[in-house]
Specification:
mainly alpha, about 70 residues, 2 helices, single chain, elongated
Amino acid sequence: MRRPQQTSMSGPVHLSVPDLEPVPVQGCKICAALDRQRAEARRTGNLSKVTDINVEIRRHQADEAS
């Protein structure tokens, strides 16, 4: 005998507020280049690339801090 298929919904999804964009470090050439790329990506509507560059800036800043 087959068991009835469960049709109840799973629990709610809780989303957090997105992080603010990282701020380029004044005088850092890498941060400046990434900031220019991010501005261009935003200008052309490529928000996925904007997000990717935000990750790159955060990683770069974390590497510099360690």
